[in-house]
Amino acid sequence: MDSERQDGQRVVWTVVGTDIGPLLLAATRDGLVTVVFHATEAVRERALERLAARLGAEPVEDATAPLLAEAIRQLRAYFAGDRHDFELPLDWSLISGFNRQVLRELATGVPYGSVVGYGDLAGRVGPPGGAQAVGAAMGANPLPLVVPCHRVVESDGGIGGFGGGLETKRKLLALEGVLPEPLF
Length: 184
What we know:
The protein is an alpha/beta fold. It has helices spanning about 40-55, 65-80, 95-110, 120-125, 130-140, 165-175; strands spanning about 10-15, 25-30, 30-35, 60, 115, 150-155. It folds into 2 domains: about 10-80, 2-Layer Sandwich (Double Stranded RNA Binding Domain), CATH 3.30.160; about 95-175, Arc Repressor Mutant, subunit A, CATH 1.10.10.
C-alpha cells in the first residue's frame, strides 16, 4: 500500500500527550479524520492498520503537518481551560448515514459545559425512540473529543458509556464543569 491514496491524498498522524493520556491524531488534506484514545504502541498499531485499510493509504507520521500542529495547539488550549470549541476542518469519510447525521448535530448543537441525553439527541435528528441508534453512533465516532460524544448521557442522569472509558468521560465532563472533579 502506498503512502498516498489513489486520489493522491496523504494521511498523516502523530501522538500527543494529554491530561487523559496519549491521543493519536490523523488527518487527510480534507481535515482531521480520527482521534484515538489511550494510544499506546499496541493501540496505535491497530488503529493505523484500520485507518490504512479504510482510507487506502499508509499513514505517515508527521507531527509538523499544519493541520496536526493546529489540532495539538487547540487540544492543549482545551485541556488548559482556554478553549471551549474546536475550530478544525473535519474529514467525515470514516462515517456515513445516520451516524454522520447524529455526529454533525452533536458537533454543532451541544456546546461546552452542557450534556444531552441519547433520546434527546435522537429526537433532534430523527424520530424519537432512537436512543440505542444514537448510542451506536457515539460508539462509532471516529473523532471523539473534537466531536464531543462525552457530552451524551443517559436520560435518568447516568453517565452512559464511552469508548475512551468511563474514567476518561468523567474527567472530560469535570473539565467542562458538568461533573465535580473525579476523586481518582
